[in-house]
Amino acid sequence: MVVDAATDPAQAENGRLPNRVREEGFFAPVRGSLAAIIVLSVLGAASSVVPLIAIVELARELVPALSGQPIHAGRVWAIVIVAVIALFVSFGTAFGAGAVGHFADAGLQLALRRRIIRHLQRLPLGWFDQRSSGTVRKLVENDVVALHQLVAHAIQDVLTAIAVPVLSLAYLFSVQWQLAVAALVPLAITAATYPLMMRGGAEKYRQYDEATAALSGATIEFVHGIAVVKRFGQVGRSHRRYQEETRRYVGFVDRWTRDTSTAFTIIELVTSPVVVLAWLLAAGAWLVNAGAVTPIDVLPGILLGLGLTGPLMKLGSSAQFLRNATKAQQSLAEFFALPTMPQPASPRHPAGHQVALDTVSFSYDGQHRVLREIAAACAPGTLTALVGPSGSGKSTLAKLIPRFYDVETGTVTIGGTDVRSIDPAELYHAVGFVFQDVQLLRASLADNIRLARPQATDTEVETAARAAQIHDRILRLPRGYDSVVGEDANLSGGEAQRVTIARALLADAPILVLDEATAFADPDSESAIQTALSTLAADRTVLVIAHRLHTITHADQILVLADGRIAERGTHADLVTAGGLFARMWTDYQANHARSLPEGVQR
Ligand SMILES: Nc1ncnc2c1ncn2[C@@H]1O[C@H](COP(=O)(O)OP(=O)(O)OP(=O)(O)O)[C@@H](O)[C@H]1O
Fold it and tell me: Ligand 1 pocket, 564 CB below 6 A?
């Protein structure tokens, strides 16, 4: 991966971000809209009850007229007008709350995404090293979208679910308490049964999340790893794991459904409109028979009682949205709490491009030291090779130079200036790096190469591509330099690596850190790239993490790492003569690569 701060917009914003923005809660950007949603929802709930009350009051006016009593036309009209206005207010506020909610949601998503991007830009590069793009995608997409239901729907649903029953019951109790009590019965049964259904719910949801994650892991392994798995004849095992996880998931959902089915059925039954209507009619008939109420008094109980349970049922789905939104909020809060890379208060400029490490120690977890007491100097115009057994700390050491991580003790300096005191934009300009995980953007090859210098001319792009031995390959693509990576430019790992080398060449960083492991993946062009790299090294400070020892026989110095320390240092000839760790590595290397070593390799 070649990175240059010229392409890093974070730097442009550095220092401009007010602390306030960082400290504010998630919902701060839409606080006003949330207040409007609350007011509109309550108003909407209240006005949705009014037409029902109006029908009751109309009935009270009109039914006596059937037995010849006079109609109070003024009162009837007043009721009708109030009902119509309430109806419009109810529709208007529901629409308004929905619209405000969706606009607020869009605003919140935009604000959160910007905040995520700002935070991502301030995290140490090492954070990205340890995370897949899936982690970042989850934050920017899934977690932000999970808040959608909360802002755009759940607030309105929850307030309606509470306000409508409360207002309806208040009216019912004020006009006819016996039927109000009858209307409460389905609610009371639901309230008593719901906790039974949700018993151990938190644990169940945790198990559900676990089973879902295990199943999706097994599915991804099964699908993605199919080639490797087939190659090693393990299809049966991988398939078995997938089947086991599916069985586990289905078994869990089955048990959960069975455990809750009785309570769920009771709730569904007692809240269904037919059952509620039948119950209220029966209660009404019994009260009329008993002479406790007149037939017309049964009407409000039926009309308003029927509307009590509907909104309540929405609470169930809202609870699920709230759960998801809370989880997303937690994951976003944890992300925002990640410490950002400290920025120098008053940045200093490096004087030259000598790279020096002075008694550098480092650990990833604050406990196990991966690098100990490293001291080394790499002069401009020289090539330094880092070699050593796997896990000895080569990549870690290289990553300290462009500040993927900060040292625990000691200093890393460029031109005598501590890298922590250099403005990150200047640091990334000074250090180009090509690591193992090649990152090409879904853009044309020309744009990929000029990533760090967007103003570079076509000729400059071509010159860099020639030097990185990728020009001829690009010309063979259907649209040459305009071919788009991942569409009509499908490159091999080695070819993609050479595009990133071209990018590094064009970026013209005076310090270059290369991981040789894949830089020379294509044996055909290895010597050509070697030539390109030696041209590069002419006036640059080059550090190469070397795995194929014959490629660094001409290095100006070789640092041999073992267990996080520099065990030996010197030229190839010095180290072979010294007969230590490197000499043994070289002997083994020659024995293992006897046939593939190019002619004339120093032995
Ligand atoms: N991101 C990380 N978090 C925690 N430990 C890590 C991380 N990266 C590397 N390590 C550990 O640090 C040690 C040094 O790893 P490093 O990758 O620097 O070695 P290396 O010499 O480059 O190995 P290789 O040649 O296999 O690439 C190893 O023990 C490794 O497990």
Answer: no
